[in-house]
C-alpha cells in the first residue's frame, strides 16, 4: 500500500480525516498556521483541537483563472465548521452558482493531489456537499 502524506500539516488522515487547529488557551481563538502569539489577545499558549468535519458554506468564489496546471473553474470557499472558520475548496460539485450557495451544508473530504516518484500520495482536503 502506498504511503499517504497530508499536503498541509493541519490535515490529519487517521483514523478519520479531520483538521487540527491551534486554539489559544486564554481566549479560544483558533488558527491553522503556527503562531508564537495569539492575534486576538497576545496569549502565548495554544493547544491542538480537532475541528468539526461538518460545516456550512459562509462565502465562496468561483475561480476561473489559476496558475497553469490547476484545473478551473473551482470553488474557493470559507466554511464555518461549528464556529471555526476554515478556508477550503468546495469539491465534488458542479462549480457554478446553480449548485453552490451560501448556507449549504458541507463536510470534509480528502482528495489525491499528486504522487511522487516513490509512489507516495499527497492528500489534500476540500469540502463536499452533504447528501
Ligand atoms: Zn487569544
Report a brief summary of the structure:
The protein has 131 residues and is mostly beta strands. It is 0% helix and 50% strand.
Task: Report on the architecture of this protein.
Helix content is 0%, strand content 50%. The protein is built from no helices and 10 strands. The strands form 2 sheets. It has a 6-stranded mixed β-sheet with strand order 1-10-9-6-7-8, with no helix packed on it. Strands 2, 3, 4 and 5 form a 4-stranded antiparallel β-sheet that branches. The protein is globular, with a radius of gyration of 16 Å.
Q: What labels would you give this structure?
A:
mainly beta, binds zinc ion, 10 strands, four-stranded antiparallel β-sheet, about 130 residues, six-stranded mixed β-sheet
Query: What is the rounded distance between the termini?
Result: 30 Å
Shape descriptor reads: globular
Bound molecules: zinc ion
Mean pLDDT over the residues:
94
Helix content: under 10%
Oligomer: single chain
Detail the poorly predicted runs: none
β-strand number: 10
Estimate the strand proportion.
over 45%
Strand order of the largest sheet: 1-10-9-6-7-8
Q: What profile does the largest beta sheet have?
A: 6 strands, mixed
The helix/strand class is mainly beta
Give Rg in angstroms.
Answer: 16 Å
Order of helices and strands: EEEEEEEEEE
Provide a count of the helices. Answer: 0
Give the arrangement of secondary structure elements:
Layout: E1 4-6, E2 11-12, E3 18-24, E4 30-31, E5 46-51, E6 54-63, E7 74-81, E8 84-90, E9 105-115, E10 121-129
Parallel strand pairs: 1-10
Antiparallel strand pairs: 2-3, 3-4, 3-5, 6-7, 6-9, 7-8, 9-10
Bound molecules: zinc ion.
